[in-house]
Amino acid sequence: MIGQALAGGKRLGVVGLWDIPAPIFERIKAAAPGVEIVDALPVMVKLRVIKSPHEIACLAEAGRQACAGYAKLLEYAVDGNPETMAAGAAEGAARMAGAEDINFTVFGSGERTATVIGRATDKIMRNGEMVMAAMAVQYQGYVATVEYPFVIGQASDAQKRFLNVLFEAANVQQKFLRAGVVMGEMVRAVKAVFAKHGMTQYDLYPPMHGIGLAEAESPYPDDHATAEFEADMCVNSDISLWGCPAGSNRIEEGFVITAAGPRSLTPAIRERIARGL
């Protein structure tokens, strides 16, 4: 079979070359004598990082379903309800909107926002508590994640300042999500917002990752990244601050990279973040 696929070629590309058990690798070599076996991972990465129109359509639909779920989460995240009720309402609404799976729901209120990836519990939510809730929704294998930081009832001045820093960083990031922009410049711009407000110590990891068949995939740039954004890359913001006295939280919204700038895959979340408090 390998010989037929090669059709006379002398190089065989294998994805995951360094993860293949030795006995299987020996069988591949025996089935293709005289053929050079090379690592094809770079080829596959390039194919996966740029999305086709059909892939983008799947991500947009997953984003729509995720936004439908989050609208229901906001409706049920009120004083007196348990965290599980709000999380369950969100998951149910997303499934009713057409989601084939909920990869995860992260949920924490009050002091539990600092759990970063905690799950919903029977804790009763109260007015004045911040909520940290994210939901990853899958459609046709493709995953979109949404997260909007908010406070139940009236936010304190300290909470407002904290949330506005996250919103500012997310809105600054928008200017750099464009084909041809160096990814590291985007990361540094987000970090500069945190530094301006004296919150660098609460910034624990880079503010963006790719999306597709995995909830988080390439690219995942840090502030030293030299690669450029390319048209039809699909990414998710992941802008967060953890352990701040006012609370802990994160923003997640999806985008398609274009030459003119980002196109939102999760417009309901984008509208809220652009509007701010």
From TrEMBL:
<keyword id="KW-0031">Aminopeptidase</keyword>
<keyword id="KW-0645">Protease</keyword>
<dbReference type="GO" id="GO:0004177">
    <property type="term" value="F:aminopeptidase activity"/>
</dbReference>
<dbReference type="InterPro" id="IPR050659">
    <property type="entry name" value="Peptidase_M24B"/>
</dbReference>
<feature type="domain" description="Peptidase M24">
    <location>
        <begin position="58"/>
        <end position="259"/>
    </location>
</feature>
<dbReference type="InterPro" id="IPR000994">
    <property type="entry name" value="Pept_M24"/>
</dbReference>
<protein>
    <submittedName>
        <fullName>Xaa-Pro aminopeptidase</fullName>
        <ecNumber>3.4.11.9</ecNumber>
    </submittedName>
</protein>
<dbReference type="InterPro" id="IPR036005">
    <property type="entry name" value="Creatinase/aminopeptidase-like"/>
</dbReference>
<dbReference type="Pfam" id="PF00557">
    <property type="entry name" value="Peptidase_M24"/>
</dbReference>
<keyword id="KW-0378">Hydrolase</keyword>
